[in-house]
């Protein structure tokens, strides 16, 4: 069985739950200062068919001129400099392309995101929700839980746009 107990190890990666052809898989943006974690997470997500972009800091991510509206952010809470939660707050404060759908605009949420942390607690979970994160995951990252969060956001239309 795999870590979540849902099937055998080596099982074929799950298919996106969203069967509506108007929606596409989001590009996953990893914001993580630990190069080994960043690279291994990239490798796993690419295995599941996701395009991946990665950044070593919140500042590097925020410095992009354009951040597409078909992104899903996986961000470390404990980044040096601008923390993951501070980076999410800055994203939320920005206008323009970061606000992906009317529903998200109404909720004042930026790109759909998951915060990961080696030292999470109830207060961090509250802060992550206030910053707009869909979930707070402990390290080591439960890949099944991360994939479920990504798939749920795609099914709900959070962070993926209909094809033109």
From TrEMBL:
UniProt keyword annotation of Phosphoprotein present: yes
Any Pfam family the entry gives: Response_reg
SMART domains assigned to the protein according to its UniProt record, in alphabetical order: REC
Keywords: Phosphoprotein
Entry-annotated residues carrying 4-aspartylphosphate: 76
Domain Response regulatory: 27-154
GO BP term, example: phosphorelay signal transduction system
SUPFAM superfamilies hit by this protein: CheY-like
PANTHER family xrefs: CHEMOTAXIS TWO-COMPONENT RESPONSE REGULATOR (PTHR44591:SF25), STRESS RESPONSE REGULATOR PROTEIN 1 (PTHR44591)
Protein name, UniProt field: FixJ family two-component response regulator
Organism (species): Prosthecomicrobium pneumaticum
Organism ancestry: Bacteria, Pseudomonadati, Pseudomonadota, Alphaproteobacteria, Hyphomicrobiales
